[in-house]
Amino acid sequence: MKLKKFSFKNHKTGWHVNDVCFGVISLLVGASGVGKTLILKAISDTAKIADGQSLNGREWHVVFEEAGTTYNWSGRFNVVKGLQELFPASKKFSIEDELLVNEDNNEVIFSRDGEQLLYHNAPTVKLDITKSAVELLKAEDDIAPIYRAFKKVMWLDMEEGSKNRFSVIDFHDEKNRLSLKDIKNLTFINPIERLFFIHRYDKAAFEEIKETFIEVFPLVEDIDFDIDSITDGEYVILLKIKEQNVDNWIKVPDISAGMYRTLSQIVTLSLADDGDVIMIDEFENGLGINCIDLLADMAQDADADVQIIMTSHHPYIINTIPYQDWRIVSRKGSEVVVNTASDFKIGVHSKHDAFMQLIQTEAYRTGLA
Questions:
Q1: At what angle do helices 289-300 and 257-270 cross, to 10 degrees?
Q2: CB atoms within 10 A of CB 145
């Protein structure tokens, strides 16, 4: 999938973002608190809606390309405010309207107005009004690719606390060998857990990831896992790293945040497939310059045809990514405003001074649109 244009509103909180255009790589830059992470969250929420989740007060409008066809999908949930939204009976929110159009031939694939859902202009049986029609009609031949497309949206969320968790996973004997695609498609596991399965089932792929990691941290000589059985088929796994001329292995939680985060990003980028949309918040967080350099190169030169949307404050990252790929984020009250470099005439007179031109804009310095 390729996201092309995106708008999103949260009627419960009042904030909204309008008409963000994305390229193959989009770097969201701007002052703290202007809404860069909110944009990533909005994209993530839209993917959740496609998967059937019910989200209070959300309104979305996304233009995207899948398998050579451009689609326009929009919709809106009702708003529940106050204490009512905290009660279980109120945690399912109704979709008030929804529309999916094939933009290449202007065909309306489905439309929805309250409880009435039309599929190719024909009424359907009464369906769940708290779930998107993408989820409800995912078995249909022309909806299934769209449903699968939104499954390819992933947020590489590396919170500092995540490195302190051990993992409990299920796996069985060697008869159930997993391919790299199988490993990528495992749900509810993080990149380090995926690395464990790669280590177990694809040694060549594991060695490539390890070699890339050692390029960043040349003092590292090996990566492995400790495994302890809990029950039949259920195990605790613990990542460990061996450094040169050090007798003892370094184990989670003693592995540095930068090492853990870098390894997670390498795994994610190594497993990327055509059509993946990878979101990375604060790309540089916890990383040294040597890590940033390699990961920025991997992001720009990924083997697969992927789309990457990331945020950063780091001058090195901003300078590494071409200014044409910058999306400059600012705010006007609750409205998140996104401009391109060309909107501020950045790079028009001097490509080499693009970063200096960026930091001199009021939008970047103050965050005000």
A1: 10
A2: 15
**Inter-CA distances, 180 with 139, 200, 211, 281, Å:** 25, 11, 18, 25
Residues 6+ apart with CB under 8 A from 260: 158, 162, 163, 192, 239, 252
Beta bridge partners, 235, equal 169, 229
Is the distance from CB of 33 to CB of 367 less than 8 angstroms?
yes
Q: Chain-centre distance of CA 258, in angstroms?
A: 20
**What is the per-residue pLDDT across 289-303, written as a single tens digit (0 to 9) for each?**
667 777 777 777 766
288 SS3 class: coil
The closest of 6, 5, 107, 118 to 59, measured between CA atoms, is 6
Strand intervals (E) in the chain: 2-10, 16-21, 25-29, 58-66, 69-77, 95-102, 107-113, 116-119, 122-123, 153-156, 167-170, 220-231, 234-243, 250-251, 277-280, 307-311, 326-332, 335-340
Determine contact, residues 28/331, Cβ cutoff 8 Å: no
211: left (phi over 0), alpha (psi -120 to 50) or beta: alpha
Contact (CB, 8 A) for 58 and 96? no
The answer to whether the beta carbons of residues 278 and 156 sit under 8 Å apart is yes
- Reported as a single tens digit per residue, the pLDDT across 12-46 is 899 999 899 999 999 999 999 999 999 999 999 99
Q: In whole angstroms, how far apart are CA 126 and each of 58, 110, 112, 129, 324?
A: 22, 14, 11, 9, 47
Beta bridge partners of 113: 97, 116
Q: How far is CA 150 from CA 51, 72, 102, 220, in A?
A: 8, 13, 16, 37
pTM: predicted TM-score of the whole model, two decimal places: 0.87
* Residue ranges of the chain whose pLDDT lies below 50: 160-164
Cα separations (Å) of 266 from 9, 155, 210? 33, 14, 9
Strand partners, 328: 29, 339
